[in-house]
Amino acid sequence: MGGVKARQRPGALPVPAERGVSALTPAPVLDRWNADAAGIRPAALDRGDNVITMFEVIGEDWWTGGGVTAKKVAAQLRAIGDRPVEVQINSPGGDMFEGLAIYNVLREHPQDITVKVMGMAASAASVIAMAGDTVQIGAASFIMIHNCWVVAAGNRNDMAEVAEFLAPFDQAMADVYAQRSGRTAAECAKWMDQETYMSGSVAIERGFADELLSADQTKVDEKAKASDAAVNDVRAMELALVAGGATRGDARARINKIKGTPGAVLEPADTPGAGGDPELAAAIERLAQSFRS
């Protein structure tokens, strides 16, 4: 039996007034999304004008110029008006604080919201999924929950300050997961500590989703899959450089210098193995392999 449907939406989640800390998706989550969920899209090409799709990272995406933001979602809801909404999600997450803001925007919508997890709702995207009055999930899809993940630098006093700053956000997320699922906040916090992936059936059993999506509602778009995976490899490189002490600006500049901007059309000479500078091509490939591992 599935979970109880059309639960009362939990209250608003706290969002920091000043984004002095960026809450990000860890690189291993991007790798998991590349392997299991990249490129999954709705099977039907046409969709209603009351559908919001979230097939990108959460928050503004520097690498593609896209990303799902609270501002964009609010504009889409205004355009839809006082009608039921369907939210289709396949996202590795991203900016957790932006995810909290999107959740708050959705929970204020006066009509029912149906969330469809079509591939993965990880990290910040899992918080957004909890805004659904009904949550549907593919049998081979995943909901992934974890604590706020940030990159910080400093001494033990700085680290203690960051930990204190993050604690209320982790607690708020645990409370929302608990209210949605019917589990205790302590159980949800334990799953968050373990960075837990829940398949469709497990998510329903634990109350994070209500029912399975039929298999014919999704398909794999190979072109989108290749594009998603390529950009996520670069995002993982950026995170690794930041974790090593670089600023995000410096990390992006270094990656652009070595690899070029993702999505740019490469000349044959710029493609590894297709001519050009073989030393540079080999260096790029070694760099990509090191981050993948």
TrEMBL record:
Record keywords: Cytoplasm, Hydrolase, Protease, Serine protease
MF term (GO), any: ATPase binding
Keyword Glycosyltransferase: no
GO cellular component terms, semicolon-separated: endopeptidase Clp complex
InterPro entries reported in the protein's UniProt record: ClpP, ClpP/crotonase-like_dom_sf, ClpP/TepA
Stretch forming the signal peptide: none
PANTHER family with a match to the protein in the record: ATP-DEPENDENT CLP PROTEASE PROTEOLYTIC SUBUNIT
Protein's name according to its UniProt entry: ATP-dependent Clp protease proteolytic subunit
UniProt source species: Novosphingobium guangzhouense
